[in-house]
Specification:
Elements: H1 7-37, H2 44-63, H3 65-78, H4 93-107, H5 112-134, H6 138-158, H7 166-174, H8 180-202, H9 218-231, E1 239-243, E2 249-253, E3 256-261, H10 268-286, H11 303-317, H12 321-334, H13 336-339, H14 344-351, H15 365-384, H16 392-404, H17 430-450, H18 454-458, H19 463-472, H20 482-490, H21 497-511
Parallel strand pairs: 1-3
Antiparallel strand pairs: 2-3
Helix pairs in contact: 1-2, 1-3, 2-5, 3-4, 5-6, 6-7, 8-15, 8-21, 9-10, 9-12, 10-11, 11-17, 15-16, 15-17, 17-21
Length: about 525
């Protein structure tokens, strides 16, 4: 590398290298998306090898010596030469250097061969999970889970975490600065308060489910979901929706964000709420500032913040009375024989019916976080050695009974229901519950800034809401750490108080507590 190159020249070269790596990573993401949607079953093994090659290449691009040298020069110049800040496109160079340096420091500690081996194992693991779930057979998946758990432990060890703190390292990857100690301090009181609220609700008459004994044609469900997704602001020219075994969102580019869902014939809301949830993720990716495109800043700042956007759209907006006042008549247009005699109040009660069940993605607002807290506690035990992989189904079922008074009838609706562990995504689950907490703090501030949103939602006018979220959250990408973002936007640190006040007020009114 030319040692006489200016800070501005170093920045430009670093951006070129980062852009190339991002393109490789997006290509790998495209193959992963295809594996979950359209890949023939016979192509799984070869796809795993393809992913291993691409992810290995992306890793090599990040850890090459030139990236390290450029980062070193720029960090030295950062406090001495402001020229690096004056890019014509107002690119936030200081944030870019900080974020890429963090990524580089993590990646350079992990051998390329390990990345390739892990990527290949992940592809095979996900395929094995799909089959095991289909046949309700945890034992068939257990060897793959053992391998993914071992890879996760090795990764945290490579990053420099002590043997007793490996899980903290993975938690920090998804939500910086929040480890077992911090999450236990948040989740413990939240668990107790939610369990108490569930007990109070259980003592009240259940309003029932208006969908029982009906079959809702999946083609009509899909048509309605597409209408709602477009109606709430999803740009079909910049994304698409497909079907997968487990709903997910992936960004393949600045103007290419894919979401997936799945449909249940007995419940037209199951697929819809997945669509709205994944739509919230897509809005975040599609709302990134143009100056960040093709760079490491063009992502959500943490998974907890990302989940705040999906949980806000799915629950705070999507399960509200004012959201459904204009949309319920459209749902009845699609399913007039099935819902023709169902009045709005009965439907609204069904939307917000609190009946703890085994499936996380179909859980009501009150019980949902308990699903997450259980997964967090099981992961902690797996990493601390208090629990083995073979003991996991029994521990899962016991936890579901203890926390939610729910009996799991088999592995498919129990320990095999989520895709995350097959991907090696240990430490990811807490992001969902954190997303609930972040969402309500953001929502309260949004209402404070723009006024009540009731009339906007009744008019199906979501523009002002989108604008506030883009300006305050989406545009920033990874320029702010999650703790900085929540403080900058709301003036407060992360807390469960706003979420619980919302939950308690809403369900006290619904159930007359």
């Amino acid at each position: 590398m030319n040692n006489n190159i200016s800070p501005a020249g170093c920045l430009e070269r670093l951006r070129v290298l980062d852009r190339e790596r991002m393109h490789i990573s997006r290509a790998a993401a495209l193959l992963q998306w295809d594996q979950e949607t359209y890949l023939p079953s016979g192509g799984i093994e070869e796809r795993a090898e393809q992913l291993a090659v691409l992810e290995g290449l992306a890793h090599e691009r990040l850890i090459n010596n030139e990236v390290g040298e450029l980062l070193g020069k720029l960090r030295d110049a950062f406090s001495l030469d402001n020229a690096v800040h004056n890019a014509q496109d107002e690119f936030p160079a200081d944030d870019f250097i900080r974020v890429l340096h963090r990524d580089y420091e993590k990646a350079v500690k992990i051998p390329v061969d390990f990345v390739r081996e892990c990527a290949k194992a992940e592809g095979l693991s996900q395929a094995a999970w799909i089959e095991a779930r289909k046949h309700n057979n945890f034992a068939a998946f257990a060897p793959h889970l053992e391998k993914m758990l071992d890879f996760a432990k090795q990764k945290a060890a490579f990053w420099g975490w002590e043997r007793t703190k490996l899980y903290d390292g993975l938690l920090d990857y998804y939500e910086p600065s929040l480890g077992v100690h911090e999450l236990t301090a948040i989740f413990g009181p939240l668990r107790d308060r939610l369990q108490l609220l569930l007990q109070k609700i259980a003592a009240k008459p259940n309003p029932g489910n208006v969908f029982i004994n009906h079959n809702f044609e999946k083609a009509k469900q899909e048509a309605f979901c597409r209408e709602v997704l477009s109606g709430i602001g999803f740009d079909g020219k910049r994304g698409r929706m497909d079907i997968s075994a487990h709903p997910f969102t992936t960004a393949l580019g600045f103007n290419d964000v894919r979401i997936t869902t799945r449909y249940a014939a007995s419940d037209p809301l199951s697929g819809l709420f997945s669509v709205i949830h994944e739509g919230g993720h897509a809005f975040y990716e599609l709302g990134l500032d143009k100056s960040l495109r093709y760079s490491s800043l063009a992502e959500g700042t943490s998974m907890g913040i990302h989940e705040s956007q999906s949980r806000l759209w799915e629950n705070v907006i999507g399960r509200s009375r004012v959201f459904w006042e204009p949309w319920y008549p459209r749902l009845k247009d699609y399913f007039s024989p099935e819902l023709g005699t169902v009045d709005f109040e009965s439907f609204y009660r069904t939307v917000n019916n609190v009946v703890p069940g085994p499936i996380r993605v179909e859980a009501d607002e009150v019980s949902y976080s308990l699903h997450i807290i259980l997964r967090f506690e099981l992961e902690e035990k797996l990493f601390s050695g208090k629990l083995s992989v073979n003991e996991l189904p029994e521990a899962w079922n016991a936890g579901m009974k203890d926390y939610l008074n729910v009996e799991c009838t088999g592995d498919a609706e129990g320990v095999l229901q989520d895709v995350h562990w097959s991907m090696g995504a240990f430490g990811y689950f807490p992001s969902y519950a954190l997303g609930n907490l972040y969402a309500l703090q953001f929502w309260n501030k949004l209402q404070e800034d723009i006024g009540t949103t009731d009339q906007m939602l009744r008019r199906r006018d979501y523009g002002t809401i989108h604008s506030w979220l883009r300006d305050n959250i989406h545009h920033k990408g990874r320029c702010k750490k999650p703790a900085e973002l929540i403080m900058d936007v709301t003036g407060n640190l992360l807390s469960a108080d706003s979420f619980f006040r919302y939950i308690e007020q809403k369900y006290t009114e619904l159930y007359g507590l």
